TrEMBL record, chain A:
The electron transfer flavoprotein serves as a specific electron acceptor for several dehydrogenases, including five acyl-CoA dehydrogenases, glutaryl-CoA and sarcosine dehydrogenase. It transfers the electrons to the main mitochondrial respiratory chain via ETF-ubiquinone oxidoreductase (ETF dehydrogenase). Heterodimeric electron transfer flavoprotein that accepts electrons from several mitochondrial dehydrogenases, including acyl-CoA dehydrogenases, glutaryl-CoA and sarcosine dehydrogenase. It transfers the electrons to the main mitochondrial respiratory chain via ETF-ubiquinone oxidoreductase. Required for normal mitochondrial fatty acid oxidation and normal amino acid metabolism. ETFB binds an AMP molecule that probably has a purely structural role. The gene is ETFB. InterPro entries: ET-Flavoprotein_bsu_CS, ETF_a/b_N, ETF_b, ETF_beta_N, Rossmann-like_a/b/a_fold. It is found in: Mitochondrion matrix. Belongs to the ETF beta-subunit/FixA family. Heterodimer composed of ETFA and ETFB. Identified in a complex that contains ETFA, ETFB and ETFRF1. Interacts with ACADM. Heterodimer of an alpha and a beta subunit. GO terms for biological process: amino acid catabolic process; fatty acid beta-oxidation using acyl-CoA dehydrogenase. Residues 27-219 form the Electron transfer flavoprotein alpha/beta-subunit N-terminal domain. It comes from Amphiprion ocellaris. This is Electron transfer flavoprotein subunit beta.
Automatic annotation (TrEMBL), chain B:
It comes from Amphiprion ocellaris (Clown anemonefish). Homotetramer. Residues 163-258 form the Acyl-CoA oxidase/dehydrogenase middle domain. Belongs to the acyl-CoA dehydrogenase family. This is Short/branched chain specific acyl-CoA dehydrogenase, mitochondrial. The lineage of its organism: Eukaryota, Metazoa, Chordata, Craniata, Vertebrata.
Length: 256, 424
């Protein structure tokens, strides 16, 4: 039996998001060609938390995993420059990448967590492009691990993790056993910049390449995107002089 | 390195380049990015992964940690200590210094990219970084004895700013007419004289002073001395009240019987003039990068305004007159950038680069002047106020045509090269 076992390995899952959103002319999705990617802000916070735990010597190794095409390697390198020890690039390209959603990613994460014998998985709570907020929770369910989501404070205590969660009503503090899945919220920490020396060191860190098939994961999507539209253009407003005018206008446009 | 090797397996055409990249961590001139197709002559704006990452990191850092201080630093004519500290923390002050001495261990081109990014936010901060990297650090790395490197390089990369002291009140462009004297006694020298226009002086911990040990030998007596800040007799006088680059301290220095041990000579006695010219040839490219960044930063602040401001029922950007001017300036900035990058890559490749460096410095400073002037016009009345950052860029750019070799000096140097090219 384990008592007072310290965590050995954390997997973080930094995702890259588009910096500029434009809907494709055929409304089938968002333009991705040639658009700049950058690490999802919540994922930066997740990576930072993992690196901090390693600096406190509470865990031994941080592994950064990213699923996607070649460009995902940049995201992994950024995580390495922030302090992760090694990276795993799960190659998903082309059509598969377009339909890659939280369910597929969590299957990949679950498979990797078992393969790498991780004690903690830390993800950003959601990606700012699709706002799904599902991957962390699904991964925990697939692994049957406890989850601490929307974390604004994380502390390790032997083989348990104390998580302060930001919920609608305020803050909730829970204690969960490891292995566990955590998702990072905005106030968990302030991510460090990759300093130039660390960027240089990151060049020497290893990134392994893996295919989803090697992990036994089926990437078929259960969802079909029917249409993607921009939100309606904001119409100009109308100024009114008096309250009577206001009420009149509201009635006129059928608002009341 | 493993990741590069795995790239080799998936893309056999890249084997030569990938293997070559593996064997030397110092970036070679035409390093292709991972996405460059089978072309072995990638465009000038092609960066190694490390260069791209550095540029992104510095961009973010500059926006978050420098931008908030820019206006105040300009008004008070004072560089914020926190800014200087964070420059060191980010590894920006020892870019080419070996990690053995706490440096970043990267390349000259990386320095150029860093200076450009910093200059987009504050040209004063960029020049502090430029002087440290392209003048001070390079001199120590190339000329320092093991003892000197041991003593100074790790400080230069972690917490100590350096200053380069060549100009005097009576000798600017005519640098070798300098009068500061160093008299030899046994195993030390006594330095007397004054220097002027010394950047970074307010915060520098070490000064590289060009003094003449033998005026009868003319410029062949000029020697480079390492003078620590707290040396008795060294006086750092009140900084100049400048038009632009105000946050960068520019001070006169007085040397009153300053005693400097012989071991503090950098390089060889009487070779100082060579070192000065050599360093300034490279420093020129750094200044070019600063001017490109300045122009781009100013431009980036201005175009959004022209897209928002509506007059006569349309965006001022939509007037043909405006579009033509804007496109013209954008072209000049692009050309300036390419001249700068090419000069930097030539230098890294060990190929002759002096003429190109002069061209880069000359052209970019002219472009910066044009760009900032036009930007104020495009902004209209608000461009003329201090509430907007444009007027600062306009004031900052002017020094570009003056320092580290005036435009006239650059042109004359270029002409000498051109003349030689037609000798047969």
């Amino acid at each position: 039996m384990h008592s007072n076992r310290y965590c050995n390995r954390i997997i973080v899952l930094p995702f890259s998001v588009l910096l500029e959103i434009r809907v494709k002319p055929d409304n089938s999705g968002v333009v991705t060609d040639g658009v700049k990617h950058s690490m999802n802000p919540f994922c930066e916070i997740a990576v930072e938390e993992a690196v901090k735990l390693k600096e406190k010597k509470l865990i031994k190794e941080v592994v950064a995993v990213s699923c996607g095409p070649q460009q995902s390697q940049e995201t992994i390198r950024t995580a390495l420059a922030m302090g992760a020890d090694r990276g795993i690039h799960v190659e998903v390209a082309g059509k598969d990448y377009e339909t890659l959603g939280p369910l597929q990613v969590s299957k990949i994460m679950a498979a990797l967590a078992k393969k790498e014998d991780a004690q903690l998985i830390i993800l950003g709570k959601q990606a700012i492009d699709d706002d799904c907020n599902q991957t962390g929770q699904m991964t925990a369910a697939l692994l049957d691990w406890p989850q601490g989501t929307f974390a604004s404070e994380v502390s390790l205590d032997g083989d348990k993790v104390k998580v302060v969660r930001e919920i609608d009503g305020g803050l909730e503090t829970i204690k969960i056993s490891t292995p566990a899945v955590l998702t990072a919220d905005l106030r968990l920490n302030t991510p460090r910049y990759a300093t130039l020396p660390n960027i240089m060191k990151a060049k020497k860190k290893k990134i392994a390449n893996v295919k989803p098939a090697d992990l036994g994961v089926d990437l078929t999507s259960r969802l079909e995107v029917l249409k993607v539209e921009e939100p309606p253009q904001r119409q100009a407003g109308v100024k009114v002089e008096t309250v009577e005018d206001l009420v009149g206008k509201l009635k006129e446009t059928g608002r009341i | 390195l493993t990741s590069y090797l795995s790239l080799q397996i998936s893309r056999p055409w890249g084997t030569c380049q990938a293997a070559w990249r593996c064997s030397s961590s110092r970036a070679a001139p035409d390093v292709a990015s991972d996405h460059a197709a089978a072309s072995s002559f990638p465009p000038l704006q092609t960066y190694s992964e490390e260069e791209s990452m550095m540029r992104e990191a510095v961009k973010k850092y500059a926006q978050e940690r420098i931008a908030p201080f820019v206006s105040k630093m300009d008004e008070n004519s004072e560089m914020d200590e926190e800014v200087i500290k964070s420059l060191f923390e980010q590894g920006l002050m020892g870019i080419e210094i070996d990690p053995e001495y706490g440096g970043t261990g990267s390349t000259f081109f990386s320095s150029i990219l860093v200076i450009e990014e910093l200059a987009k936010v504050d040209p004063s901060v960029a020049v502090l970084c430029d002087i440290q990297n392209t003048l001070i650090n390079t001199l120590f790395v190339q000329l320092g004895t093991p003892a000197q490197k041991e003593q100074y390089l790790s400080r230069l990369s972690t917490d100590m700013v350096g200053s380069f002291c060549l100009s005097e009140a009576e000798s600017g462009s005519d640098a070798f007419a300098l009068k500061t004297r160093a008299e030899k006694h046994k195993d030390y020298y006594i330095i007397n004289g004054s220097k002027m226009w010394i950047s970074n002086a307010e915060h520098a911990g070490v000064f590289l002073v060009m003094a003449n040990v033998d005026p009868s030998a003319g410029y062949r007596g000029i020697t480079c001395f390492i003078v620590d800040r707290d040396t008795e007799g060294l006086e750092i006088c009140k900084k100049e009240n400048k038009l632009g680059l105000r946050a960068s301290s520019t001070c006169p220095l007085n040397f009153d019987n300053v005693k400097v041990p012989e071991k503090n000579i950098l390089g060889k006695v009487g070779h100082g003039y060579k070192y000065a010219i050599g360093m300034l040839n490279e420093g020129r490219i750094g200044i070019a990068a600063q001017m490109v960044g300045l122009a781009q930063g100013c431009f980036d602040h201005t175009v959004p305004y022209t897209r928002q401001r509506v007059q006569f029922g349309k965006r001022i950007f939509d007037f043909q007159g405006m579009q033509h001017q804007i496109a013209h300036v954008a072209t000049q900035i692009e050309a300036a950038r390419l001249l700068t990058y090419n000069a930097a890559r030539l230098k890294e490749a060990g190929r002759p680069f002096i003429k190109e460096a002069c061209m880069a410095k000359y052209f970019t400073s002219e472009v910066a002047t044009l760009t900032t002037s036009k930007c104020i016009e495009w902004m209209g009345g608000v461009g003329f106020t201090k509430d907007y950052p444009i007027e600062k860029y306009y004031r900052d750019c002017k020094i570009g045509t003056i320092y580290e070799g005036t435009t006239n000096v650059q042109l004359s140097t270029m002409a000498k090269f051109i003349d030689k090219e037609y000798d047969y």
